[in-house]
Amino acid sequence: MLRKFKNYPTFEEAVRSFKNCNARKLGIADRIIKVSRHRESQENKQNVLKKLSKYFKEI
Asked: What is the pTM of this model?
């Protein structure tokens, strides 16, 4: 029966691998959030420029 449990990681190793996995997931999520915020700010800038150009065309 002990042979079955030889290949399993110790508790500390399991916790370390779990933390590393979550860190990777959080890093990916942070990147996705940063990219979406950047795109949103770019779109807002373009919208402002379009409104300004329309305003100046009318004048």
From this structure: 0.52
